[in-house]
Amino acid sequence: MLRWLIGGGREPQGLAEKSSVQTIGEEQIQNPYTELLVLKGHQDIVRFLVQIDDCRFASAGDDGIIFLWNAQTGEKLYELHGHTHKITAIAPFSSSGVTEEKTDLIITASADRTVIVWDCTSGRQVQKVSCFHSTVKCVTVLQRLNVWLSGGSDLCVWNQKLDLLCKTSHLTDAGVSALVELPKNCVAAAVGKELIIFRLSASNNGSEVWNILEVKRLVDHQDNISSLVSVNDLTFVTGSHIGELIVWDALDWTKQASECNFWDSSVHPDVQPEIKLSQSPHETSVQHLTSDDECVFAAVGKGIYVYNLKMKRVIACQRAAHDSSVLHIEKLPNRQLISCSEDGSVRIWELREKQQLPAEPVPTGFFNMWGFGRANKQANQAAKKMQENTPVYFLELVGDLIGHSSAVQMFLYFGELGLATCSADHLIILWKDGERESSLRSLTLFKKLAQNGDLQLRL
């Protein structure tokens, strides 16, 4: 049974309007999220969620306000005001000096051309910078170097005190749309169709003088780069608006593999083909990428695809995973995926292995007369062995979370604490394991009864 609760702050919720009870469905026996908590506060589209620690997260969006929440209780911790336009980027980082204790901070960038650093413990504004000539589209923290980068018409390097260490000259009108950290003090910046590799270097004399040097431009994409993800210290991956996926070597920046036919049913013969006169770019755009050490998981148009890095091919897909574009996708610690879409849905998938049919026997006859039988037999045995050793996977829908009334922008996975989703309906929903939450409430009630009983005995 799917239970609805209302949350969003310390205020009493007695006057809040509760939704009717809904059933999650008996067919979703593997879906643990049977209870949800609705968090209210935002006045416009909520586009960003960032995790601060194991039980806190921040939300931000088009109203320019940042909220800090408790993921366990749904309590609103702080409401941060400082921006006058929508939030365009947000990133968490930890500040720690020689004598200072660790401080959890978040950086927010806005269309008002400012960047603000916030203290998550006190909710206060630590620092604000208003020297930007254009909107900052992305921010990335390089924890190892103790600096962070902002990307817009320029690529800027900052220290924790928001001192500008160095910057590039004006790149293009498109500006930097995405950044990813690479080994050897390098970063990859998506600038339109190009991928620019920059190297950062600090002064050897101990001063706060840094340099940022462009070392290479990669022009393999045919359209604007829409997504960028680091797999490990050896590999990173990019995706474009026309469905290109390119796997790069993170050390020498050479192209290792590519895929550009996600939407082509002939590439996936086990999938029922769709009859279409043409494929619009919107349906083939790579909206989001995530990865583990073995695979890259891509949100492409309405579908989700699993690309195996070792095999260099798509091993599983759901070409119509949602009714509209998939905006965000994440791999869970188990063999499950979660995806969310413009259609307002959040879905849970499990990557499963197909049962394969045995390989067909070697045909005999004409070729044996000319001595080709042995070669054919060897080739068929090799093919059969390869087929037996190459598992075939598929994605099965195991959960469908219906709660938002508009596009779900992204989500955060908190393990046993549940799932947080944000939407264009101005709401944040905490999805909970109903059995776990019920057990916790029973345990709390039992402790209170035990305490009251002990008090009565003392009296």
From TrEMBL:
WD repeats lie at residues 39-79, 80-128, 319-359. The keyword Magnesium does not apply. Gene3D superfamilies: YVTN repeat-like/Quinoprotein amine dehydrogenase. It holds the Pfam family Beta-prop_WDR41. GO terms for cellular component: lysosomal membrane. GO terms for biological process: autophagy; regulation of autophagy. Signal peptide: none annotated. InterPro entries: WD40/YVTN_repeat-like_dom_sf, WD40_PAC1, WD40_repeat_CS, WD40_repeat_dom_sf, WD40_rpt, WDR41. SUPFAM superfamilies: WD40 repeat-like (SSF50978). Keywords: Autophagy, Cytoplasm, Repeat, WD repeat. It comes from the Eukaryota. It is found in: Cytoplasm. Non-catalytic component of the C9orf72-SMCR8 complex, a complex that has guanine nucleotide exchange factor (GEF) activity and regulates autophagy. The C9orf72-SMCR8 complex promotes the exchange of GDP to GTP, converting inactive GDP-bound RAB8A and RAB39B into their active GTP-bound form, thereby promoting autophagosome maturation. As part of the C9orf72-SMCR8 complex, stimulates RAB8A and RAB11A GTPase activity in vitro, however WDR42 is shown not be an essential complex component for this function. Component of the C9orf72-SMCR8 complex, at least composed of C9orf72, SMCR8 and WDR41. The complex is formed of two protomers, each individually consisting of one molecule each of C9orf72, SMCR8 and WDR41. The protomers homodimerize via an interaction between C9orf72 (via C-terminus) and SMCR8 (via N-terminus). Within each protomer SMCR8 (via DENN domain) acts as a bridging protein between WDR41 (via C-terminus and N-terminus) and C9orf72 (via C-terminus). The C9orf72-SMCR8 complex associates with the ULK1/ATG1 kinase complex. This is WD repeat-containing protein 41.
